[in-house]
Amino acid sequence: MSQLAVAIAILSKTFNDYARKEGKKDMLNKGEVKTLLEKELPGLLQEAKNPGEVDKLIKSLDLDGDSEVNFTEFMALVVRLACAIHFFKI
């Protein structure tokens, strides 16, 4: 598989691994999102010194307001982070 195909498969598997821990198997609840961010993107939460900022970030991911994060909403975060990294390195 190409690097891009592998990256996409890893993103999908990572989401599913955390989504399957509690509740709906295709959604992340607030706890699952927080655990995913703590384990997979620890630097992101370390920069948020205020716990309210973490809650705000998690709430911002919930684009449809259903109090859960689906795969599309998760990917929106991934895209924002990828763009930030890309433009930072230019």
UniProtKB/TrEMBL annotation:
<keyword id="KW-0479">Metal-binding</keyword>
<dbReference type="InterPro" id="IPR001751">
    <property type="entry name" value="S100/CaBP7/8-like_CS"/>
</dbReference>
<dbReference type="GO" id="GO:0043542">
    <property type="term" value="P:endothelial cell migration"/>
</dbReference>
<protein>
    <submittedName>
        <fullName>Protein S100-P-like</fullName>
    </submittedName>
</protein>
<feature type="domain" description="EF-hand">
    <location>
        <begin position="49"/>
        <end position="84"/>
    </location>
</feature>
<dbReference type="InterPro" id="IPR034325">
    <property type="entry name" value="S-100_dom"/>
</dbReference>
<keyword id="KW-0677">Repeat</keyword>
<dbReference type="GO" id="GO:0005509">
    <property type="term" value="F:calcium ion binding"/>
</dbReference>
<dbReference type="InterPro" id="IPR013787">
    <property type="entry name" value="S100_Ca-bd_sub"/>
</dbReference>
<dbReference type="GO" id="GO:0070062">
    <property type="term" value="C:extracellular exosome"/>
</dbReference>
<dbReference type="InterPro" id="IPR011992">
    <property type="entry name" value="EF-hand-dom_pair"/>
</dbReference>
<dbReference type="GO" id="GO:0005737">
    <property type="term" value="C:cytoplasm"/>
</dbReference>
<dbReference type="Pfam" id="PF01023">
    <property type="entry name" value="S_100"/>
</dbReference>
<dbReference type="InterPro" id="IPR002048">
    <property type="entry name" value="EF_hand_dom"/>
</dbReference>
<dbReference type="GO" id="GO:0046914">
    <property type="term" value="F:transition metal ion binding"/>
</dbReference>
<keyword id="KW-0106">Calcium</keyword>
<dbReference type="GO" id="GO:0048306">
    <property type="term" value="F:calcium-dependent protein binding"/>
</dbReference>
